[in-house]
Design goal:
Protein name: Coenzyme A biosynthesis bifunctional protein CoaBC
Radius of gyration: 18 Å
Number of helices: 5
Pathway: Cofactor biosynthesis; coenzyme A biosynthesis; CoA from (R)-pantothenate: step 3/5; Cofactor biosynthesis; coenzyme A biosynthesis; CoA from (R)-pantothenate: step 2/5
Order of helices and strands: EEEHEEHEEEHEHEEEH
GO molecular function: FMN binding; metal ion binding; phosphopantothenate--cysteine ligase activity; phosphopantothenoylcysteine decarboxylase activity
Largest sheet: 8 strands, mixed
CATH superfamily: CoaB-like
Bound molecules: ligand PMT
Number of strands: 12
Number of domains: 1
Catalytic activity: N-[(R)-4-phosphopantothenoyl]-L-cysteine + H(+) = (R)-4'-phosphopantetheine + CO2; (R)-4'-phosphopantothenate + L-cysteine + CTP = N-[(R)-4-phosphopantothenoyl]-L-cysteine + CMP + diphosphate + H(+)
Strand content: 25-35%
Shape: globular
CATH topology: Rossmann fold
Family: In the N-terminal section; belongs to the HFCD (homo-oligomeric flavin containing Cys decarboxylase) superfamily. In the C-terminal section; belongs to the PPC synthetase family.
Length: about 220
């Protein structure tokens, strides 16, 4: 625990994609690199928090000052790790891109082609990590992200309400922003306010986000 806006607070950050296995060699994933979430974890540590970072499959080094890193693969594994870490946390920031669906059956053997016939995969919904936390009593202050291609404000405010969040950071993906790239732009929404953080590096945006999270956390929880 250092000095700074989050001194004395325990923060859990999730980052990166999830991989949902189809068979021993194939999976369903997404384009999250983990860069945004790792930048958020670094900024929270710089602000004095004790940070636990739950990371999906990414190729990034653990940022300096992060106390604990838990590597996971699937959404189900991410949920277990986040829940465990959140039992003793003041703030959870979900920057991970959690797969909404997973194959209903994981094949133990490599699937083979069958003479030009189409292949169907049956998918079932993954649990929602943030909404699950929000339903538990004594849960941490909850910050979500929203990645949208259109109607960003209305989808973001919808997720703020439906998932029971304290704050959401929305990014419009595309145009060199969002997934994989070094830059992003965020708009923060909470129940009675919003703040646009214009295009900048993910490191810079993470610092600005953490300053706002610290302020909203103190306002809500003293
Ligand atoms: O990793 P990068 O390449 O740097 O890219 C960064 C990012 C674009 C992935 C990141 O900034 C971002 O927006 N992350 C959230 C992407 C996303 O999947 O959003 P969503 O609208 O599907 O989910 C909304 C929120 O619910 C997120 O906080 C997500 O972590 C959470 N969620 C979603 C599904 C689920 N089953 N459980 C969840 O907790």
């Amino acid at each position: 625990f250092g000095h700074g806006a989050l001194a004395g607070l325990r923060v859990v950050v999730s980052a990166g994609p999830t991989y949902e296995d189809i068979d021993p060699v194939r999976f369903i994933g997404n384009r999250s690199s983990g860069r945004m979430g790792f930048a958020v974890a670094a900024a929270a540590a710089q602000a004095g928090a004790s940070v636990s970072l739950v990371a999906g499959p990414v190729s990034l080094a653990t940022p300096a000052g992060v106390a604990r890193r838990i590597d996971v693969r699937s959404a189900a594994q991410m949920q277990v790790a986040v829940r465990e870490a959140c039992q003793a946390a003041d703030i959870y920031i979900g920057a991970s891109a959690v797969g909404d669906y997973r194959p209903a059956n994981v094949s133990a053997l490599k699937l083979k082609k069958s003479a030009g016939a189409p292949l169907s995969l049956q998918l079932e919904e993954n649990p929602d990590i943030l909404a699950g936390l929000a339903a538990q009593s004594g849960h941490p202050f909850l910050v979500g992200f929203a990645a949208e291609t259109h109607d960003v404000a209305s989808y973001a405010r919808g997720k703020l309400r439906s998932k029971g969040l304290d704050m959401i950071a929305a990014n419009q993906v595309g145009d060199g922003l969002g997934f994989e790239v070094a830059e992003n732009a965020l708009t923060l929404y909470w129940a009675d306010g919003e703040l646009a953080l214009p295009r900048a590096t993910k490191d810079e945006l993470a610092r600005q986000l953490i300053a706002q999270v610290a302020e909203r956390y103190r306002a809500a929880r003293g």
